[in-house]
Amino acid sequence: MPTDSFQLEPVPISVDDVFHQALAYHRQGKFQEAEQLYLKILQVQPNHADANHNLGMLTLQAGQAGSALPLFKAALEANPNQGQCWLSYIDALILAGECDTAKLVLKQGQERGLQGDPVNALLARLEGMDIVASLSNHSDESPSSFSKESPQHSNKNEKPKPAKTGNSGKQSISHNGRNPSNQEINKLMGFFNQGYYSEAVILAKTMVEQFPRHGLSWGVLGASFKQMKNNTDALLPLQKAAELSPKDPDLHSNLAVLLLELGRPGEAEASCRRALKMNPSTASAHYNLGNILKKLERPKEAEASYRQAIRILPKFAEAHCNLGSLYISLGRQSEAKTSCERALQINPHFAEAHCNLGVTLKNLGQLDNAMMSYRQTLKINPDFDKAHNNLGSALQAMGRLDDAVASFRRALEINPVYTNAYINLGNIMRDLGRFDDAVTSLRHALDIEPDLVEAHSELLLIRNLQANIHQAVMLEEARYFGNMLLRRAHPFTNWRNSPEPARCLRVGLISGDLRNHPVGYFIESILAELSSNYSLAFQFIAYSSDFQTDSLTQCIKACCQEWYSVVGLSDEKVAQLIRDDKIDILIDLSGHTAHNRLSVFAWKPAPVQVSWLGYFATTGIAAIDYLIADPWVLPESEEIYFTEKIWRMPETRLCFTQPNVEVAVSSLPVLSNGFITFGCFNHLSKMNDEVVALWSRVLESVPNSQLFLKAKQFEDASVRRMTIERFSAHGICNTRIILEGFDAREKYFTAYNRVDIALDPFPYPGGTTSVEGLWMGVPVLTLAGERFLSRQGIGILMNAGLPEWIAADADDYVSRAISHAAEVQKLSNLRNRLRQQVLESPLFDARRFATNFESVLRGMWTRWCDQQVSK
User: Fold this and answer.
1) Where exactly are the structural domains of the chain?
2) From CA 753, how far away is CA 742, in angstroms rounded?
3) How far apart are CA 654 and CA 595, in angstroms?
4) Which one has a higher pLDDT value, 705 or 40?
5) Lowest-pLDDT range, 165-174, 238-247, 672-681, 820-829?
6) Domain 669-843, what architecture?
7) How would you label 773-808 residue by residue, b for 16+ Cβ within 10 Å and e otherwise?
8) CATH class of residue range 489-648
């Protein structure tokens, strides 16, 4: 023993050296030697936090909780910022039977920022102790759900946990009376309170066999199973406990929590309401009820429950946080922000509240602040998978794609079965044009959850970007998706809609893009025309599937008879709402793009259902009756690749709203530059390797020409570098490539004044960008494809009166680029007249389009009416 040398040391001892030696003994299991050194340190430095704490640990391990209390208290007073000092002191108070003091100390710790799983475990233990105390007065009744974690006895210096008791499975049970002996009960509770749940299960099983009406034994059995993450086995014992104690509110409230975790919210609600009937002033029960009602998609009632919990306990941080989460799901972002901030005022170290605040800040467009919230979350809890995922989404929105990928991958390192992170990673890989990687990521998500709607939908969207995927394969995958939705739905087979062909029709629109978005730009003028001139023909009812709104949203809303937000509502709820609204024709404006609610259509809430505008392929959903096309984009030979019947508009399926910006068309740039500038402002994901190769041929064939690319992804330096390298591989030097990121709408339009000729990508050509370019006097060269999506450019250019800008194949594409670039005067003349030309074309003539659109919808409705008569 080296301790004698310290006693004989003629100079003051080095406290740090002694502590490190004591700690080494402690870790080696030489507890007596460690104890002597800790005592030596305290003789010299009585307020040494770690020596007091570790000596308290040894005392606690020896079963002397009362003697450990002053040591832990001294450690806490010496270092009140050390979370483990709080946890150990509270743990010792519980083991010493001083639960009221433990609650008070725990509350003080939470006010100083103490949180996390160990705190939750202590809260659960104290809750369990309350229940045990209540049972002591009626031993035939059983405790409620003991939602506990194993007590944490190790601090930053890695002190060991108490050793487990051996031979726990061989217990002698007293048969004197209806209950086991106090010694046996104490042993059972000792196992449970120290986290030895397997031993507690063995002993509790024996006790409930011998004493089937002993409530405590049933309760500990169920609680131990729950702590072992075995909720299924926990249910029966806890139900038995509730049966034996029908008037104990804590039992029923905790049973409700378990039932909710087991996916049985209806039963959970009943149990929670029983608890509240017995004691309506319990904040935790109102809070639990709020969680249950949120799961049951009864948001108004959930809000009321959370608010009641807060009225009873104003500093209930979790209730404020979950109320904020509810508001987020309902799209009420300002209220969500307020609730999350209130939770953080109460507990500044509440990781979940920081994370939720980040979500609502991102939804409010405050990306920098959102990122700060996520980083604060990760400072508190570095392994919070959702925070890493959400940070990735914010970084992606900011154009920092490499950083976003790293965040998504970190989330998946922490949680390898996190499907949302796989979907987000797939989405960003799609944005980067890395389609194989995107598909791989989505396949991982589907391996985990085969019927994950969002992953299937994203996969189908990516298929449209892959030039080598045959339409028959796409149709098969789309049908699989549709059949999957059908299995989950319960389609309506009758409706209360009157089959009168000529009456005013109620037309429903489902979309998350009724704002400053391509869908919004295409639909605004059409709805304005139909609502003003055809008010007796149609009433439009919108079902918005995203919370984002802006000035364009207000314009669209003014054209609608009714407007509903369906954010956060289940498919069944939305379908029932649509059916109750007596919608005659329901139109999907999203297809497999973001915020779609295609799964609602599988319920067949309206007698006539239509796909239009936002997507360029089959949805795969048999319940969607029609897809609106036009003569140019969808040849009859291609109809076999659609589950929908094709209904064609006479001229165009698209009608654009004239931009509300004051940007004049400039003179042809080549006249001042002396060289041709080709351009493309489409999403980078459309620029596949075949497109890069063909555009490189164009640049090689037109001397000194440049290519101006503008897309949000170019805000990321790594994306710019990668793009330059892609063209360099074809011999195009970086001085001929101009890359720019996102701009506000007016500045975006001004950028077209630097472009002579727009180049259309393939097989996914431009839609909005092409029409906007034409309005700015920039003709677009497109490559004719065979399928609906790849012929979008044909439809636009034929309706714009520009058939000479349609190439039959790649060689023709290059030839036309050369010839158009060479005819500078002709190109200049076209630029000067092009805006007026397209404004007078079917592409911008809203009244003309509205007349044709009314005929289409009326024809679909009349056909349904005729079918009803023939039944």
Assistant:
1) 489-648, 669-843
2) 16
3) 21
4) 705
5) 165-174
6) 3-Layer(aba) Sandwich (3.40)
7) bbbbbbbbbbbbbebbbbbbbbbbbbbbebeebbbe
8) alpha beta
Q: What is the pLDDT of residues 641-673, one digit of tens each?
A: 999 999 999 999 999 999 999 999 999 999 999
The structure's pTM equals: 0.77
CA distance 402 to 392: 9
Does 763 sit behind a cis peptide bond, omega within 30 degrees of 0 on the bond before it?
Answer: yes
Asked whether the beta carbons of 627 and 644 are under 8 A apart, the reply is yes
Sorted by sequence, the CB contacts under 8 Å of residue 613 that are 6+ apart come out as 519, 522, 523, 589, 628, 653, 654
Q: Give how far the C-alpha of residue 116 lies from the chain's centroid of Cα atoms, to the nearest Å.
A: 22
Distances (CA, A) of 839 to 139, 652, 778, 797, 862: 85, 14, 14, 13, 33
Mean pLDDT of 478-502: 96
Helices (H) and strands (E) in the chain, counts: 39, 13
What string of DSSP letters covers 566-623?
-TT--HHHHHHHHHHTT-SEEEES-TTSTT--HHHHTT--SSEEEE-SS-SS----TT
E strand spans, 479-548: 505-511, 538-544
Domains 489-648 and 669-843 share a fold: yes
Instruction: Find out whether 430 and 404 touch, Cβ atoms under 8 Å.
Output: no
Indicate whether 123 pLDDT > 90.
no
Q: What is the mean pLDDT of residues 295-318?
A: 94
Sort residue 297 into left (φ over 0), alpha (ψ -120 to 50) or beta. Answer: left
Residue for token digits 């351009």? Answer: 679
User: pLDDT exceeding 70 applies to what percent of the chain?
Assistant: 91
Best mean pLDDT range from 93-107, 189-203, 229-243, 354-368 = 354-368
> Which run of H or E residues covers position 855?
helix 846-870
Please, what is the Cα angle at 637 between 631 and 643, to 5 degrees? 90
Instruction: Map residue 655 onto helix, strand or coil.
Output: coil
β-sheet bridge partners, residue 678: 707, 757
- Residue range 157-167: average pLDDT? 28
The upper half-sphere exposure of residue 67, i.e. CA atoms within 13 Å in the direction of its Cβ, equals 9
Q: At what angle do helices 65-78 and 83-95 cross, to 10 degrees?
A: 160
The radius of gyration computed from the CA coordinates of the chain, to the nearest angstrom, equals 34
Tokens found for residue 156: 């930053």
